[in-house]
Every structure is written in structure tokens, then in C-alpha cells.
């Protein structure tokens, strides 16, 4: 179990390092970043919605049951460990919930159908909802999706649902906190990404170590101050 958790965490960590390095200051698709920028009148604004807990409660799009399922699923994809924040701690649920109520709204039916199929598969295979399965069983379910062996799926196919949730988990872990995830820079701290630092020294650029200089800051702190 611990070996699988470490393997998943290492995979997402490597994917995030590549994405963050290429994007400059986040892993959110450029189209989503532009939409958020336009929605807030050109100035970066913080995400205003947060769930009352890490796994339950009604959100911007998810109902309570779906929120709990997404929270559990993403935590298995990016499990937390002592000193290593996971999806729950980083607010990945909040990120996906806000995205589906906004720029990703065209994926709402994809998520609804995928979650319904996931529950049908869990009930058929284990006679229980995904959230009521132990971590080992949840990992088995996720592996079945990843390999395309999970039954009860029409559209989306199980692999498509898995790949989408994995991608959105990475975004929620490592995108700028302005989009609702990466709470308290948990993901950036995990990979040693410095955030919106305006200037790097030659020494910083040549170093192969995680950046440990200035305080980590995000888009919101660099937004223009609006004066009355």
C-alpha cells in the first residue's frame, strides 16, 4: 500500500515539475487562465468558494455525495503523507468544483456520467460506494479504471475518466492558488517551485536544488491594486 502511494505521488510529482517548469508559474491551461483573467476584469482575483470540509458539503458544482467521491478519489491519486501534502490538504476538490462551475462547464456531463458509472462499478464489484471502501479497495478500483477493465462504463470510457481526473488533480495540486487549489502553496512547496518571483540571479538559474530564497507568492499578490 505504501509502495503504491509513493509510486503515485512520485509520478504526479514528476509530471508537475515538468508542467510547472514549462508554464512558468502554473499548470492551468492557458485558455483557462485567460478566461479567469477576463472574468475578473483583467485583474487577478482569488477563488472565493471553499468547501466546509475536505470531503463533504455542497460546492459550486458538486453535490455532497459527488464531492466526497472526488475528494476520496483524488486523495488516492495524490495521497498525503507526513510532511507531504496530498490532494485533500491542497484543496484539489475545491479547484475541480470551481473549474466545473466555470471554464470547464462543458465537462459537467462527463463528470456526472463518470461518477455514476464509478458508483455502479463499485456497487457491482464490492457492494459499497467508493467512499466507503478502504484505501486498498479504492486503489483496486482506480487501477481497473486506468487499465480500462472497469465495467459499467459507457461514456466516458473508464480510462478517459481516470486520465481526466488525474490531469485535474495535477492542476489542482500545482496551479496558482488563485484558481482554488494548491492551498497555502502546498503543491509548490512540495516541488520547490518559488512562485511569481520577478527576478532570478545567475546562481539561482544554475542551481539544481529546489529554490529556497524569497517567500513563495502567487498571482493574487502581484495583481494591481485597485484604487477607489
Overview of the molecule:
This protein is an all-alpha fold. The protein has one domain (about 1-220). The protein is built from 10 helices and no strands. The protein has helices spanning about 1-25, 30-40, 65-75, 85-90, 90-100, 110-125, 135-145, 160-175, 185-190, 200-205. α5 (about 90-100) packs across α8 and α7 packs across α8. The termini are far apart.
Could you tell me the strand content as a percent range?
Answer: under 5%
- Over all CA atoms, what is the radius of gyration? 18 Å
Order of helices and strands: HHHHHHHHHH
Number of domains: 1
Quick rundown:
The protein has one domain. Helix content is 52%, strand content 0%. The chain has ten helices and no strands.
List the helices and strands and how they pair.
Elements: H1 2-23, H2 30-39, H3 64-77, H4 87-90, H5 92-100, H6 108-126, H7 135-147, H8 158-174, H9 186-191, H10 202-206
Helix pairs in contact: 1-8, 5-8, 7-8
